[in-house]
Description:
Blueprint: H1 24-29, H2 49-54, H3 100-120, E1 134-141, H4 148-156, E2 174-179, E3 183-189, H5 199-212, E4 217-223, H6 230-240, E5 246-251, H7 258-271, E6 276-279, H8 288-296, H9 316-329, H10 336-339, E7 341-348, E8 366-374, H11 377-384, H12 389-406, E9 410-418, H13 426-431
Parallel strand pairs: 1-3, 1-4, 4-5, 5-6, 8-9
Antiparallel strand pairs: 2-3, 7-8
Helix pairs in contact: 9-12
Amino acid sequence: MTDTADQTAPAARDDQPQAPGETPEELLAEPLEMPAPGPAPVGFRFPTDAELMDGPNPLTDPDDEEGGEDESGDDSDGADDSDGSGAIRLDADGFPILDEDDDADESADAADTADSADSARVEIVVPDFPEDFRAGFACIVGRPNAGKSTLTNAMVGAKIAITSGRPQTTRHNVRGVIHKENAQIVLVDTPGLHRPRTLLGKRLNDLVRETLTDVDVVVFCIPANEKIGPGDRFITRDLAELRTPVVAVVTKADTVTREALAAQLLAVSELGEWADIVPVSAQRNEQIDVLEEVLFKYMPLSPPLYPTGEITDEPQQVMIAELVREAALEGVRDELPHSLAVVVDEIADPDDEREVGHIKGAGGRLQVRVSLVVERDSQKAIIIGKGGRRLKEVGVTARKGIEKLLGRKVYLDLHVRTAKDWQSDPKALARLGF
């Protein structure tokens, strides 16, 4: 590295004046001579320590002299001062003494400030709730296709989670709110716990386990029409490590006889230690109120967590994508549900002037453009169907649900594309929202 002191100074531009007869090199070579200090100005002296300590009073006007008169000699302003000297009188503690006129002015200013603050203040209305009100979270877990989403919809009283006969339908946490007079229960419907074969499966299992640590009670769903298997035992071992109470719920009670239901309840009781065991039928709405009362016991004292009437916090685009995926899952092969992802690309309002060039169809319908993503071209052909008939059926079914959700007419524009092995591709998973 070259030392900066050895570098040649750049040539001066034409507009920079130069000393006559001296080159830049000569100027740099000559030492800079500093003038010797001269005598102090006449009358100048450094202040003493006592003068520095006393100093000027910060409460007095620095422009005022001790006589209190300004440069013009007019001391009419001094008539407002308490002693006519131009200085403010101080009390024993060093605070200024205000006259009655000053007090009146300050009171008027304070009143004006209060009035402006009142006009800008926003009134926050907090709804009344009983002192013994309870609110908390209940996590619904189980292996795939155990009836978790159907149970969630039945307890909330509205469809907030899609359902399908295919396993692993749920791919993210879905929250639903149960409102009672003296309680509020927030249900968290989770993806089915399973032995993962892809990166997506591993991430879904991790999501469930993270959710289990932040709830007040766990609902473990075990279907009545299937024998207890390795998946149920695997989940039971995980739940046994929690300090959170676990309620075992035997779902699909309407699909078996009383004798078979009794045998399943006995098998569940021997499977692990449960806070309660409740058989339910979400399809027939049987024992749902009993389960809600059981969960209510484990809710802590708390104000409401959600506004009255709000049953879910699902984003609109997520719900639209789920309705399309639900329609696409009906009547397809077993391997396709795992390979299908749905993304809402755009929602355009025809009333927005910026969207005029993108509007399709007539009648001012809301434009919803959705992509269905599969892993292989053969799966793409299954979704589209011969002559596009299958894709058209998906659109018709999904549009009905979307219009009911949004409360207006919709033009649904579906596109199918391929992203090879996206379930095991971290970048593809990130783009698809996983």
